[in-house]
Amino acid sequence: MKFLGSLLLLVLAAALLAGYILYAPYGPSTETFVDIPTGTGTPAIASQMQQTGIIRSRYGFELLRLIKGGTLHAGEYRFDHPAPLTQVYASIARGDTYTLGLTIPEGYNIFDIAQAVQSAGLGSASDFLAAEHQHTELIAQWSPHATSLEGYLFPATYRFSRHTTPEQMLTAMVHRFRQAAIHLGLGDHAADTVITASLIEKEVSQDTERPLVAGVFVNRIALGMPLETDPAVIYAALLDGRYRGTIYLSDLQSLSPYNTYKHPGLPPGPICNPGLAALQAALHPARTDYLYFVSDAAGHTRFSVDLKQHQQQVAAYREAERARSNR
């Protein structure tokens, strides 16, 4: 009887100890990162978590592994407050790795994206730009002679770990473009579509106006007229490192192949990374007689069939801008 009582006390003490190890919060009060390499086994993970002060006992971690099973995922984890061992284990079993968000809006060019990468803490802008020029094989099926990934880094919100390389980020963005291309039926000969879509993306923000702008480009190219798109001139200046926040006469006289005032037809490559609506508009331009367009004071676009009508629209826009500035 005395033996059974002692045994019961031991069992109770063990249960209390196990409960304490498994459920009593433990861990850092400040931000702590733990990076679990791929292929790390449970004992090594348990030891690593104990050594970094995330859990109280590696034996408790291994006990949970026996009880709960599941797959423990590699990656970087962030801990910033004491938590029960069960919660820590569940986080690793779910693969709740620490990632940083990176949002690429429609119309961002490679320079904008590189700066966004740097601002998000995912690496330097210069390293991203170098990789972007180096890994053009990622888009060889659409643009085999491309010197840049411009146009194919699909706008979206991404999540990357702090250890993600520029090449891995670029691969993910091109993968999203590939998914969009399949959805739209772009096929392997999408280069001109992407270039046109990039111009549309920078020219107008209203989805309903995008097909009309696409139609203007089609009409002007058919007549041998230069496109005369200011965003392409700005992009030429950006490539040359001489953009000063506005377009100067010297920019309009530049010999850059992106100067659509000097060279008829499409520029040699995209000038930004277009979204789905701009790509759709490039694929399905509106059939009109329009040859010109200009923004109005309300942020919409006015279209014209001849130069006289266009000049009237431009004059109306300038008058509205003067009236607004005099208020």
In short:
With 327 residues, the chain is mainly α.
Low-confidence stretches: none
What is the strand arrangement across the widest sheet?
Answer: 1-2
**H/E series, N to C?**
HEHHEHEHHEHHHHHHEEH
How far apart are the first and last residues' alpha carbons, in Å? Answer: 98 Å
- Portion of residues in beta strands equals 5-15%
Report the total helices: 13
How confident is the prediction overall: mean pLDDT? 91
Instruction: Estimate nothing, just give the exact number of structural domains.
Output: 3
Function: Functions as a peptidoglycan terminase that cleaves nascent peptidoglycan strands endolytically to terminate their elongation.
Catalytic activity: a peptidoglycan chain = a peptidoglycan chain with N-acetyl-1,6-anhydromuramyl-[peptide] at the reducing end + a peptidoglycan chain with N-acetylglucosamine at the non-reducing end
Pfam family, one: YceG
Protein name: Endolytic murein transglycosylase
